[in-house]
From TrEMBL:
It comes from Sphingomonas populi. Residues 203-383 form the Tyr recombinase domain. This is DUF4102 domain-containing protein. It holds the Pfam family Phage_int_M. GO terms for biological process: DNA integration; DNA recombination. One of its GO terms (molecular function) is DNA binding. Gene3D superfamilies: 1.10.150.130, Integrase, DNA-binding domain, Intergrase catalytic core. Residues 99-180 form the Core-binding (CB) domain. PANTHER family: PROPHAGE INTEGRASE (PTHR30629), PROPHAGE INTEGRASE INTS-RELATED (PTHR30629:SF2). PROSITE patterns: CB, TYR_RECOMBINASE. The keyword DNA-binding applies. Belongs to the 'phage' integrase family.
Length: 407
């Protein structure tokens, strides 16, 4: 079809007036008096003659010009105007440049915050994103490749934080999917990286899971000589075995002492479901004593620096270290494993009731449909039994003083 040759285009010289060198199917080279050579396409759309520019030679060669002509003619055959489509493509390109990954990510985080995501989860997400911003933060979200994302993930892996790298891939994927949903990207490059990262070994949080060890722990707690509020945090961690974040963020308004129950809203729960905790007589008494220290404020366990914030997430773990329990021996989260193990070993309680008290989500959908019951009456009995058992274990020997040589 073409009538031009590359040598013809190269050797074309300017004249006093501009002139055309036609190639066929509407494509021609416009040679200007100043020597510039511009590719043009004449075409008809809806009965009107139009002209489309393909750029200047030699930036756009003869072969490139022909490819663009063929693409334009395909659009015309499909009932589209190539000029209009070109303007849309330019607008999309400009919009893509404006929508950086950081801008979209911050918008997505703000959305999660509005929808009630727990602050501790938001903090972890922000921490991960801050690690990604130096490499891809200013890149247009629609142009980021899987290779670029992998570089970000490898930088985390290089520090030995395999679990953080795994979570980073998940968070980046959620940002990309949000960009797709808001028409600012078409693909999720993080999705293509499944299997590329080192799988972290399952790491069980340290916990004491024997009656003997639990008794030693409870006696050691009674020998704690640090801040009184921290002492109550240690005691109630054992009696209630809720997640550490749920305990330290407990608010006085959540308690119904007339009914001996602590009502935790879904916003504070890991599984985003409201949770109720039966209060044993021992737990109720501990809260009554704690009220004398913090009852005038919002939080049961306020920060030592500001009553407007809850206790630091490191406080209970630091207290356990002060009592001589190393991080490989016992953690704040370990109170949950301790209760779950010892309660299951008694054989007195339905395992589903124990799981419900731990606020665990049943992963099997069919089984979950059959275990929707609260097991409330059984959980009330169980929590009283657990507190009684802790007292018996604690009173089995004399109070232990902190052992700083331990671990």
């Amino acid at each position: 079809m073409g009538k031009l040759y590359a040598t013809t285009v190269t050797s074309a010289r300017p004249r006093e007036r501009e002139y055309k060198l036609t190639d066929g199917a509407g494509l021609y080279l416009l040679v200007k008096p100043n020597g510039r050579k511009l590719w043009r396409l004449n075409y008809a759309y809806l009965g009107k003659q139009r002209t489309l520019s393909f750029g200047a030679w030699p930036d756009v060669g003869l072969g490139d010009a022909r490819e663009r002509r063929d693409e334009a003619r395909k659009l015309i055959a499909a009932g589209l105007d190539p000029s209009h489509e070109a303007k849309l493509a330019t607008a999309r390109e400009m919009l893509s440049e404006e929508n950086s990954f950081k801008l979209v990510a911050e918008e997505w985080v703000a959305k999660q915050e509005r929808e009630g995501m727990a602050e501790i989860t938001l903090s972890k997400i922000r921490w991960l994103l801050d690690k990604a911003y130096p490499r891809i933060g200013n890149r247009p979200v629609a142009k980021i490749t899987a290779q670029e994302v992998l570089v970000v993930l490898r930088s985390i892996e290089a520090t030995g934080r395999y679990e953080s790298a795994r979570r980073m891939r998940s968070v980046l994927g959620r940002v990309f999917r949000y960009a797709i949903a808001t028409t600012r990207a078409e693909t999720d490059p993080a999705r293509d990286l499944r299997g590329a990262l080192t799988v972290p070994k399952a790491k069980h949080l340290a916990a004491i899971t024997t009656d003997k060890g639990a008794g030693e722990l409870m006696r050691a707690i009674e020998g704690y000589t640090g801040h009184a509020i921290t002492l109550f945090g240690l005691r109630l961690s054992a009696h209630l075995f809720v997640r550490p974040g749920e305990l330290r963020q407990a608010e006085w308004s959540e308690f119904d002492f007339d009914r001996s129950v602590w009502n935790i809203s879904e916003q504070k729960m890991k599984m985003r479901r409201p949770h109720r905790v039966p209060l044993s007589t021992q737990a109720t008494k501990l809260f009554e004593q704690l009220w004398e220290l913090t009852g005038t404020g919002k939080y049961c366990f306020p920060s030592f620096r500001s009553p407007r914030r809850p206790m630091s997430e490191n406080t209970i773990n630091a207290a356990l270290r002060a009592l001589g329990f190393g991080q490989e021996e016992m953690t704040a989260h370990g109170f949950r494993a301790m209760a779950a193990t010892l309660l299951n070993e008694t054989g007195k309680f339905n395992p589903d009731a124990i799981e419900r008290q731990l606020a665990h989500m049943e992963t099997n959908a069919i089984r979950r449909a059959y275990t929707r019951g609260e097991y409330w009456d059984e959980r009330v009995r169980m929590m009283q039994h657990w507190s009684d058992h802790l007292d018996q274990l604690r009173d089995g020997a004399k109070v232990l003083k902190p052992n700083f040589a331990r671990g």
